[in-house]
Amino acid sequence: MSDSCGNPATETEALMPRRRKFDKTKICVKCKTNPGSLIIRHAVYCKECFVPLTTHKFRRSLEPFVNAKPDGPRRTALKPQGNLLVGFSGGLGSTVLLDLVHRYYVVPDKALIQDDGGSHHPRHERVWKRVVVGYVEVCDAFPSMVERMSDVRAIMEGYGGFEFVPLRIQDAFDPCWWKKIGRDPVNLGVDMTDEALKLLRLEESTSPLEAMRSYMASLPTTTARSTALQTLTRVLLQYTAQANDCSHLVLGTSLTSLAVSLISGVAHGGGFHVREEMQEEWTADQSSDREVDVAKKATKRHGLRIIRPLRDVGMKECGAWSWWMGLKVVGRENWEWPGFKPGIGALTKAFIVGLEKDYPSTVSTIVRTCGKLSPKGIVEGKCISCERPIQSGIQDWQARISIRSRHNGDEQAPFEEVAESLSPFLCYPCRITLTSRSTRPILNPFPNSNHDVSLTPLPMWTGRVLHPPKTSGSEEGDAEIVVGRTLARSEMKNAVKEFLLQDE
Ligand SMILES: [Zn+2]
Ligand SMILES: [Zn+2]
Fold this sequence. Notes:
Layout: E1 38-40, E2 43-45, H1 47-62, E3 83-88, H2 92-106, H3 110-115, E4 131-137, H4 149-159, E5 163-168, H5 175-180, E6 188-191, E7 198-201, H6 208-218, H7 222-243, E8 246-251, H8 255-267, H9 274-278, E9 280-282, H10 294-299, E10 304-307, H11 315-324, H12 344-358, H13 360-371, E11 379-382, E12 389-391, H14 394-401, E13 417-419, H15 428-435, E14 456-457, H16 489-496
Parallel strand pairs: 3-4, 3-8, 4-5, 8-10
Antiparallel strand pairs: 1-2, 6-7, 6-14, 7-13, 9-10, 11-12
The structure holds zinc ion (2 copies).
C-alpha cells in the first residue's frame, strides 16, 4: 500500500499540516528593519507598519462604495449622497470601526493620514455632513442582562463629533417609534400555533416591551431567537438610517465575525442571502433591491448601502488595534438564555474562533469563497420580516416537502384576519425562524410574563404587507398576494410515491 492511501483517521493532520506560527523571520515583513510585534496569517508586522496596513484594509472596503457610482482605485473626491450611520454594538469590531471612522471622517487624525495622504484624501472637507451612531440595547430580550446604554453614551461623549441615537430592541414593536420616523403604525400579529402562520390585526394593548418578549418567547429554538435578534437589530438600524437621511450604514463585522455569520447563515437556510450578508443596498419601499432599473439608478438616489469596512480585518487585528490605540471595549454580552442550549450561531462562533487559532488562513478563505458565490434563482419580492430578497418558488417547494400539522379551522380568531398565511411574504430563513421545531418543548424564557402564542405580535415594519409596494412596470392593482394551498391527499401521495415503502 502506498503512503498516499493511508488511513486519514490515524493521520489527523494529513490534509492540512499545521504551519509554523510565522514564516522564516521575526523581523517585520513590511519595513524589514523593526522586530515584529504581531503575526497576521503567518506574516510578522511591527506596530508602525500594522497601523497603515489596517487603515488601508478599512478604506479599501469602504471608500470605493461611497460615491454613487462605485469605483475601483479612486481618483475623484468622496461625495456621498447622504449621511453616515455607524451601527455600534459595544463589541470589539464596532469599537475599532467607530475609532477608525472618527479618525478618518469626523476629526481627521493627522498622524494617521499623513503617511498615506495622497491628493484624494478627505483632509480638507468633511466627507459625511452628519455622522450618526446607532446603538441598539438588547438587554430586555434576556431575563437578566446588564444594560450598557450609559457606558455607550459615555464613549460617544468622549469622542465628540458624533450624533448619538439610542435605540432599544423593543422599539421594533413600538408604534410611537414607528410614528416618530414618519410612518403609519399597524399592529399585526401571527398565530404561531399553526404552521400556516395566520396573519391577524391586533389591538394595541400591550407595551412594546411585552410585545417584544412575547415575540421572543414564541420563537421555537435558541437559534431562532438569536437570528431574530440579529435581524431586528439590523432592520432597526436600517430604518434609523433612512429616517436620518443616511446613504451609508457601516457595521463593525470583522473578518472573523463575517465568517461566523456566513457559515451559520447557510446552516440556518440562508444560502440565498450570502451576498446580502457581505454587502447590500436597501430601499425601504421597494419590493426588491436586486432588480434595480439601471437607467433610473443613474439619475435617482441610490438605496442605503450597508457596508462592513472591517471585512478584511480579523479579530486578532481588531484586538491589537484597540490595545495599541487604548480603546475601551464596553463589550457585548453573549446572547444566552439561561437553561437553553446554545444555538447554531454560538456553536459556529466557537468553531470558527478555534479554527482561526490553529489555521489562521481558513477564516479568510471562507469569506473569499462565499464572496464568489452567486445564489441561483429569481428574486420574488422582499421579505417583510428581514427586508431581504425572497427566492422565487420556495413556497411551492416547501408545500411539497413539508409535513404540516394543521388546526381545524372551527375556532374563530378573536381578531380580524389579514391573510390566511404569512408564509408568502417571508424568505426561507425567516420562515424557518418562525416555524422550525426543536426536539425539546419550548420553554418561555420570561416565565413571569403571560403571552399568547396564537397572538404573537410582529415588528412594525411587517405592516408593509398591507400596502404592497409597486414593482416597476406593473400597473396599480397588479400586486398579487400568493397564498399557498392545501394539497389533496392524492396529490400528496403522488409527490412522494417513489419514497413510499410497499405495504407488506
Ligand atoms: Zn515594519
Ligand atoms: Zn426574511
